[in-house]
Specification:
By secondary structure, the chain is mainly beta. The chain has one domain. It has a 5-stranded antiparallel beta sheet with strand order 4-3-2-1-5, with no helix packed on it. A hairpin with an 8-residue loop joins strand 2 and strand 3. The chain is globular.
Length: about 60
């Protein structure tokens, strides 16, 4: 699946939290995106995730 900056996603293994895509093609790899929690929260930070493990948020 292809995601764009601003898309809201969930991790397939635990689709509870919602994240927002902040960067695509991390390090030139189209299979990696940078995401962070969609809602402001203490300790919120961006991290890199493989697109294969993400689904579009409901």
């Amino acid at each position: 699946m292809t995601f764009q900056v601003g898309d809201r996603v969930q991790v397939k293994a635990s689709p509870i939290s919602v994240f927002e895509v902040t960067e695509i093609d991390v390090d030139g790899d189209p299979q990696r995106v940078k995401i962070q929690a969609a809602e402001p929260a203490p300790g919120r930070y961006p991290f890199i995730h493989n697109v294969d493990a993400l689904i579009a948020a409901e």
